[in-house]
Amino acid sequence: MKKLNFRRRGNVKQIIIHVDMDAFFASVETRDNPALREKALIIGSLPGERGVVATCSYEARKYGVHSAMNIKEAYRLCPNGIYMRPNIDKYRSVSGQLHEIWNSYASAAETIALDEAYLDVTERAKDLEGARKIARVIKQRTRDEVGLTCSVGVAYSKTAAKTASEERKPDGYFEIPTAGDFVDLIIDRDVRVLYTVGEMTAAKLYASGIHTVRDIREKQEEVVRLLGKQGRWIAKLAFGIDDRKVTPYRPQDAKSISREVTFQENVSNYELLKDVLVLLALCVEHRAKRHELHGNGVTLKLTYADMKGITRSKITADCDSAVMIWREAVRMLDNMDRHPVRLVGVGIYNLSGEEGRQLTLEDYFPDSRQQRNEELKGMLDALQARYRLDFAGHLEQIYQMDTLHKTVEYMRKHI
Q1: DSSP string computed for 65-103
Q2: CB of 94 within 8 A of CB of 28?
Q3: Domains and CATH numbers, the chain
Q4: What is the dihedral of CA 156, 157, 163, 167, to 10 degrees?
C-alpha cells in the first residue's frame, strides 16, 4: 500500500517549552491551607449538587477521580474526600504571577489556560542545553516565588513539548529533542496520546482496528478516509511532524464571549430564566468591555432536563450593552420550546476590537446610552424587589462565578 508522504518543510528548528502546573486549583488550596496536604481534595461542585470535578489532588486520583468527572461519580469513588468550590479569582491572581515568570524567558508565549503555556525559547536558549537551564530556572522560580510545583517539557514541537511535560508528572521534567525521539516514545501507545484525538475520534479509530500510533502509521489512508482533514493531521503527528508556531494569545482572537449557569434543580418558570439572563448579560458585557471587544451577534443556549441542548443565535451589530444582549436573548427564548431547563447561557460572537466595531445607535444618538443605563438600573431594581437582593455597592461581585451561581440559586429558591 502506498504511504502518504509527509516531509518537514524548510529547515527552521524550534525549541519549545511546555509548562503545566500540577493539579493547579488543588495545589493552590493546599499551599494556602497546609492541613489539606496529602488529603483527597476535590475542587468543583459539592456532593449532592449538579456539576463536575474541575481538578483534584493526586491523592484523590488514586481513587479514580479525575477532571470533568460528574461530581456524583466522584463522591461514589471517594466519599471521604474533601470537596471545595473553586475560587476562580484567587486562581487567576496566581496565574498572573506564573505567566509573568514564564513569559520572561520566551520570545513568544502562548497561554493555553490559567495553569499552562507554550514558550518559544529558540532565541534565548540557542540549543538544548540552554533550554534545560531555562527549564530548571522556571521550575525553581515557580516553587520559590509562588510556592507551587510545575511539570516542564522541552521539545522540538508543541505536540512533543506537551507530551514531554506529561511524561514525569508531578513536578517533572522531560525532553524530546527530535521527531525520531517522539515517535520512539509513543509508537506503541494508544492513539489518544496524540493531540486532537479525543474519546469520539478514538472510538472511530478503534472500530477500524486502529488502536496505537503504530497502527496509524501503517494505515494512513484509512485514517484520512475516516477523519478527513483531521485524519491527515493525526497521521502527520504519528510521524512526529508538527510545525505549528507558538502564537501569543490575544483576547480579540476569541470567537465568542459567554456565561452560563447550571441550576441545581430544573427550572420551569421562564420568567425566572429571563431574570437570570439579566445577570448573565451583565457578565458578558463586563468581560467584553474589559478586553475592549465588541460583538456582532447574540447567542442563547438552553439545556433541557433530558440533556437535549439547544442553541439559537441572531446577528445584530447592537449588542455592546447588557440591555441589548438581554433583549435579543429574551426574544429568542420566547420562541423556544418550554420544557424544564437544566442550564441557561448567553453570549456574543463575531468579536472585533474598536477598529472593527460597527456603529450602533449610541454612536448616532449619545442620549440612548443614558437611556439604556436607566433601563438597566430599572431591571436591577426590579430584581432586587422581586428576590430581596441587595446590589448596592456589590454588583461587581456578580462577575465572580461563585457569587453568580449562589445568587442564581437564591433566586430560584425565592421566586
Answers
A1: --TT-BHHHHHHH-TTSEEE---HHHHHHHHHHHHHHHH
A2: yes
A3: 24-87 (3.40.1170.60), 183-238 (1.10.150.20), 251-413 (3.30.1490.100)
A4: 20
Please give the grid coordinates belonging to residue 386. 422581586
Q: What is the rounded CA–CA span in Å between residue 338 and residue 344?
A: 13
* 39-43 long-range Cβ contacts below 8 angstroms, 24+ apart: 39/81, 39/82, 40/65, 40/78, 40/80, 40/81, 40/82, 41/81, 41/82, 41/84, 42/71, 42/74, 42/78, 42/81, 42/82, 42/83, 42/84, 43/84, 43/85, 43/86
Give the separation between CA 113 and CA 84, rounded to whole angstroms: 21
pLDDT values of the chain reduced to their tens digit, one per residue, 415 residues:
334 443 343 334 899 999 999 999 999 999 999 999 999 999 999 998 888 999 999 999 999 999 999 999 999 999 999 999 999 889 989 999 999 999 999 999 999 889 999 999 999 999 999 999 999 999 999 999 999 999 999 999 999 999 999 999 999 999 999 999 999 999 999 999 998 899 999 999 999 999 999 999 999 999 999 999 999 999 999 999 999 999 987 665 668 899 999 999 999 999 999 999 999 999 999 989 888 888 889 999 999 999 999 999 999 877 889 999 999 999 999 999 999 999 999 999 988 775 444 444 454 344 556 777 888 889 999 999 999 888 876 778 888 888 898 899 999 998 8
Cα 218–219–224 angle (5° rounding)?
Answer: 140
> For residue 171, what are the contacts with CB-CB under 8 A and spacing of at least 6?
22, 139, 149, 150, 151
Instruction: Tell me if the bond preceding 366 is cis, omega within 30° of 0.
Output: no
Active centre residues (catalytic): 116
First to last CA, the chain: 67
What does the angle CA 88 – CA 89 – CA 93 come to, to the nearest 5 degrees? Answer: 115
Beta bridge partners of 301: 311, 345
3-state secondary structure 146-166: HCCCEEEEEECCHHHHHHHHH
Distance CA 134, CA 109 (A): 14
Burial class (CB in 10 A: 0-12, 13-18, 19+), 129: exposed
d(CA 177, CA 167): 14
Q: CA torsion 247→252→253→254, rounded to 10°? A: 130
